[in-house]
Amino acid sequence: MVVPAEIFTQKRTVTKDDLDDLEHVNNVRYVQWIQDIAKEHWEVRATQQLKKEFIWVVIRHEIDYKKQAFLGDEILIETYVGETTFVTSERFVNVKNAQTNEVLVAAKSMWCLLDSKSKRPTKITEDLRTVFHKQ
Predict the structure, then answer these.
(1) From its phi and psi, is residue 39 left (phi > 0), alpha (psi between -120 and 50) or beta?
(2) Helices (H), 46-122
(3) Distance, CA of 124 to CA of 119 (rounded, Å)
(4) Domain segments of the chain: what residues?
(5) Residue 111, Cβ density class (10 Å: 0-12 exposed, 13-18 middle, ≥19 buried)
(6) Which of 47, 53, 105, 115 has CB 3.0 to 4.6 Å from 122, enough for a Cys bridge?
């Protein structure tokens, strides 16, 4: 039986620090949010033992910037894990306007699992595969 991936979400309000010279959210800020939510998802779902043994590093981001967000906008960031291979895991992130539910940014990232001591890629076990799925 395939267990669906958990959709992990966080909300935030766009601040002045998030803006670029054009007065909308800076593309670099979206990249930071994409990485931050992935990290938070791991921190919330993984056991202390897993967090001690393993770390995730991003090896690729694909980002589509669809609409703009401005100062004061309420943002909903959603993420879930897709296909997992031997040492990599696909992660999707959608950044939405919380009021309209319009997708502002759609991203797909590839993450690699590393052994925390050796810093070398390591096998994603069945236990690790289920960390990001509904229980």
Answers:
(1) alpha
(2) 48-53
(3) 14
(4) 8-129
(5) buried
(6) 115
Report, as an integer, the average pLDDT of 53-71: 97
Written as six digits, the tokens of 18 are 């998030």
pLDDT tens-digit map of 90-99? 999 999 999 9
Q: Above 70 in pLDDT, residue 109?
A: yes
Which architecture does CATH list for 8-129?
Roll (3.10)
Q: What pLDDT score does 134 carry?
A: 65
Backbone angles phi, psi at 79, to 5 degrees: -140, 150
Q: Quick one: tokens of 5?
A: 């991936």
**Structure-token pair, residue 25:** 């959210």
Both tokens of 79, joined, read: 């993420």
